[in-house]
Amino acid sequence: MKLLKRILLGSALLFSLNVVAEEMEPTFWQDLLPQVDTVEDPFAALDSNQLYDLGTIARYRDAQKVEGFKPSEASQKEMAQLEENFAKSNIDVDALFVQREKIMQQRTKLATLPNQGVLNKPHRIPGFITPVEIDGNKVTKFFLVPTAGACIHTPPPPPNQIVFVEYPAGIELVSLQTPVWVEGELFNEATAADVNYSDGASNVETVYQMSAQEVELYQMN
Questions:
Q1: Would you state the CATH architecture of domain 114-217?
Q2: In terms of DSSP bridges, do strands 200-217 and 163-171 run parallel, antiparallel, or are they unpaired?
Q3: Keywords, A to Z (predicted)?
């Protein structure tokens, strides 16, 4: 009977360890991107000259929306010729601009929306620290970012490729180049905070927040 109890206890312990291990499988940055329906991109089939001409037409049409805009006769003829060239190639310019708007909307969603499937769950994410608040010699609030020096030496990543982390215990930051693992529950809350550096400051936005349970130096699992 004692042997059976030990076997059952050992099995239960192994099961619980397996559950923890499964819960803390690494979450990578591509996992934070939302699932967005793919929009067909007809521009990939255009050559560089056609793309340039399409851009010229787009700028002309945008200018037409400005009050008081009076196009010259020469520019009107040029636009008519460009559109005629597209028509001869069986390319519908108006349809391209409709699709362009859909593609822009898709790109906006890919950059700004959270992945609903990762929210309100524990995660273990690798990345680099961009300090927001420091207590003594420890960083207590920071942006977790996918590349070293992001938001300071380079423009900020998209809002869904940044996690705002609160870690009251704090971590001593040796260098912005030092990778870390951050563990905690991920949730959706839009946040903006200033990141200060030697010659200025940058306002950084994110759609993810985490109250970290642990922050440790990066080691391969």
A1: Beta Barrel (2.40)
A2: parallel
A3: Signal
